[in-house]
Amino acid sequence: MDRRSFLKSAAATTLLAAACPVALADAVEMPVIDCHIHLFDPTRPGGVPWPEKANSVLFRPALPDRYAQLAEPHGVIGAIAVECSPWLIDNFWLCDTVEKNTLMLGYIGDLLPEASEFGATLDRLHRSDLFLGIRYGNLWNRSLRDAVEKPEFVDGLKLLAQAGLVLETANPDATLIAATLRVSDRVPNLRIVVDHLPNAQIPENAQARNAYESDLRDLSQRPQIFVKGSEILHRVAGEVSMDIAAYKAGLDQIWNLFGEDRVLFGSDWPNSDLISDYDHTFSIAKSYISTQSHSAEEKYFWRNSIDVYRWKGRSAAQRRLGTMIANI
Questions:
Q1: Could you give the domains of the chain?
Q2: What does pTM read for this prediction?
Q3: Closest C-alpha to 165, from 126, 132, 117, 124
Q4: Cα-flanking dihedrals φ and ψ of residue 245, to 5°?
Q5: Could you report the per-residue pLDDT of 183-209, keeping only the tens digit for each?
């Protein structure tokens, strides 16, 4: 069996990862853009709002150099940081941190579109090509459902769309998916990324579940809506399985709805360390996508990220990807 055929076997790839995850580095066949990592430094003066000190897994610096050691063996040549702090000043800290390392293609900030200073702050951050958008959803006690009914919130999102930037949601459930539809109705030209959909909280009640699935189908018909294939590994009945079969039905649903042009890779590092290490996080995504066509793999691992974020390459390897797209 040749290497390509081996990678096409999801079961074999998962077995390899379980036995020796780092061995996957020898099978890298294409570049990867990781569209979802978090950067923070608890040793900063004033600390950080997340993670908490009691979190022995996460409470240590998560910075680009540490990430690179874990990700580059898997072919990662670029990453996008997603702000994990509600503090306005931390957008500028993240910009500075990303700017210092060319592995980083940019970052998603954390701003309140309804705030009176939103337009001015957006303008200031957007002076950097590294600023790619903002995140708003089920975190920091926010409600997208309530926010989208405020005219000032919608006005802020219109400014975001006019700037060609992205809105990312957070921690999906049925309410968030319904609210995302509402946002799309109000600001049709806004590119939206639904984060962590493989780990969505799906209603148990049949009627509510049907409504959730109907909303997903509606979202899938809108070409400006994208999905991150992040948080694939998660607890099912309290256990974390390393067998792709445990997640296949949910991934198939997402893939069949949104298709190969609108699903992209994100590791959720280092938050993913609460479930497993980077090697297993990557290998489970690889084992699923390797059952698709080579073209679909490329789209998932890097091509779609350009369509979504319109990032500008900083390293030679990143710029080559942009050139490949331009020459098609």
A1: 3-319 (3.20.20.140)
A2: 0.90
A3: 132
A4: -60, -25
A5: 999 999 999 999 999 999 999 999 999
